[in-house]
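If your schedule permits, I should be very grateful for your opinion on a structural question. Please examine both parts with care and let me know of anything in them that strikes you as inconsistent. The record follows directly beneath this note:
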Amino acid sequence: MLESPSTVSLPSAKSQNLKVRSFSVILLAGLPSFLLVLAAARPLDSAGGAQDQLPPPLSGRISPYVSTPHRVVEKMLELAGVGPDDTVYDLGSGDGRIVIAAAQKYGARAVGVEIRSELAEQSSKEIARLGLEKSARIIHGDMFEVNPTRATVVTLYQLTEVNKRLRPLLEKTLRPGTRVVSVDFQVLGWDPEKTQIVTSDAGTEYKLFLYVRE
């Protein structure tokens, strides 16, 4: 049984190979008059993943918020073979849809980590509304400060640079056999066990990468 409350705070395309998913506007702390608009436009690299670059100080720490279509969420969890014996960690959980699906549809325990307070609050409320507090929760905090040792499955929808910075944490903490599913962006240096193309209801193609830690 997962501890409650469901929110926990931490201390501290084909033309030109371009996909445009959405825009996120982020107000940088300490720069109240400066708005940084990040477009989730990602040219595909030759390996079928994606190239990206975030300007400092966000580079490597946070990706633009782009919700994962529900069909893609289901295919991610199916690709990882999620079931009642699993504990799923979604790093950068957004509105909580992966966490909720893992708990509600697949019977797994699920933990989401989300740094944006409004999204963490929104997803926690939805978990409570659905009565899933015993199997799902949201940590409001930095995914780089979370220990996902209990995870048997980790889901990612982060930019390549963020995945690169997450890799040492995952290699240090994940147990052998833990499955990692990443959407669109590879974890460079890891060889995927499987890849799968999924088409959303809107007709957009997503590429899933399944890794299994040794």
